Protein 1
Amino acid sequence: MKSTASLAIIGALAPYASAFPAAMMEAAARDSKIMARTEELTRMIEARQAGAGAATAVFEPVNTFNEKAQLVDVSQGSGHEWVAPSGNDLRGPCPGLNAMANHNLLPHDGYATIAQFVDATESVVGMGSGLAIFLAAFGATVDGSGLAWSIGGTPTAAQAGLLPGGNGISGSHNKYESDASPTRPDLYQAGNDYQTVASQFQQLIDASPGSVTMESLTSFRSQRFDTQIANNPYFFNGPFTGVAVQPAAYTFIYRFMANHSAEYPAGYLSYDVIKDWFGITGNSGSYVANQGMERIPDNWYKRAIEYPYDNGYFAADLAAAALLHPKFLSVGGNTGKVNTFTPVDVANLTGGLYNSQTFLQGNNAACFAYQFSAQVKPDVLLGSITTLTNAVNQITGALTCPQLQSIDEAQLKQFPGYTKSPAA
Ligand code: HEM
């Protein structure tokens, strides 16, 4: 018979059951140390988390580290030595994908198929398959040929072949690429949205005393959000780009770039490790950003195989950050001058499905963002967006999202940051 404590933990974890293997849940229910933490954990979940990193305890309940399985070998002779980009090689706003291409874990030219992105993100950093399929299918549908896409700008004909190859994720502002990114500038302020800015990296480090954590990244995100409202007259926090891509740009830093060990099974992100991932050299106070030169650190161990970072985990991180800083969920923007941020009413935007109270509850904010993502207009109109809509339907089903019937895009047209490059 199951104890009250084990029932409590299984009950508490039930909404996340699809996010990690049943065997781990069973193990969690049997482990006495875990049992001792059950009440605390249950209270935390009931309070819908306290702290930006609180989802770690929910989604990684049993400490586990397997040195052999988690090592990503990029040493000499591994076949995945770092090679600098050259010629027409495409590199862009995503340090994770740039690094994988530099190690030939994605095609070195930076133009890859959905299957190649899914395979690389799952096997190299432990992304969950639902999230990997969605991210890769979204890129192909919106910024690529429908089957493949560029991690930088527009691919050459030699790279894309006979199909038009789209504009890549560097040319994807308001579609995939968002404002207030960690180390990249806002397009309408800097004229590009993909180059690493050393001073922004410095701010990230300054906001992260000792090491980089979910807490430090979330408070850095809050700082970046305010800075961009105060400096970019066209700042725009879009329904998908602001609500979902912006948090991913911060949570992915810890969830996918942290190093793992027996001592730190859930990850430890030192300054040296994050510098490699972002292609930064030099020391604090004199950092140098080397464009497109991102790398996977030597002796780097990915997240535990048992705990892929999938949609449920990401939705919990997104909600935990928004509980700390509700402004993150404010869809809206500046109206052409700095410090004029005007939020739209989500009830008007969604035909009354969500409102400012329900938006903060459960997975609603993530549901809303995924539902909006399916509305985006592709660079190349190829007719079929079935792969993307299937991926979205699977996620919104797993997160038990309410059905969105209508979206009133007109609400967004008051924002110059939106009309300059509308997503739909
Ligand atoms: C197929 C999978 C992926 C896709 C489609 C993707 C796409 C993107 C896009 C469009 C951006 C720009 C967002 C913005 O404007 O802030 C971005 C940024 C980012 N991505 Fe990825 N990405 C993927 C996988 C990864 C992985 C595996 C990692 C980590 C290893 C990663 C880490 C990041 C980070 C840290 C940023 C923010 C960069 C900055 O501004 O400092 N991504 N990614």
Note: The longest strand covers residues 111-113.
Protein 2
Amino acid sequence: MPELPEVEVVRRGLAEHVVGRTVESVTVTHPRSVRRHIAGAADLAARLTGQRVASAERRGKYLWLTFDEPDTALVVHLGMSGQMLVQPAAAPVEKHAHIRAALHDGAELRFVDQRTFGGWALAPLVEVGGSLLPEPVAHIARDPLDPRFDAEAAVAALRAKHSEIKRVLLDQTVVSGVGNIYADEALWRAGLHGNRLASGLRGPVLRMLLTEVGAVMEEALDAGGTSFDALYVNVNGRSGYFERSLAVYGREDEPCRRCGAPIVRERFMNRSSYSCPRCQRRPGGR
Ligand SMILES: [Zn+2]
């Protein structure tokens, strides 16, 4: 599952190579990739044809394109393995290219998705809190990289949540874009165990945690951005950040980079959580 920094790399690629181009035709070759577009493949193709792409937008891990026609967005679900590739129309078609949009400049925007959990769907744009969002994204909170992210409001919302802080970070309603990896990294930086109750944490502690969430994403984006090739918009694979600088995630039994204690792995929400048993004390003791 791509996390926010990977999705932002894709968005930047689309902004550079797709925005301003007009869609000349759309070909759908796998029905699963348009299953979220209830009106079907022919409707999607007809409505996209002739549209000029106005912008590439993102909130949290959600990605969409807008068009000169103002009321509609193309929501791109990357799923587990989705890629948005911009290729010359004459380039060989990838094995798992399930949707292809021919652009007027001779390029083709291709949605390649081996596992077919992702897809494209048109959705109406609605106004929420001063921003225009596709309807399926309307409930998603701003992410920490959003210039209009309100940290004080997020702290207040976190303090009202009587559930574990990691669970709240992951649920996308107070702050969006935080996946398992970045949650673990930010909690380690803040010295907090993910099972601590959000409502039991003081304002300054939560503020620091949100700062670390933003910082860890910025660093990942800096690292992930370096692997971006001019004509190849690719979300598959791990960012450079993944290999280089993770402090806890995936480091079971390796020494904590701060205190040397072996990192522990625990089950949390059917996933693995990594933490330092010394720097991040578990609530209730152990
Ligand atoms: Zn430690």
Note: The first strand starts at residue 23 and ends at 28.
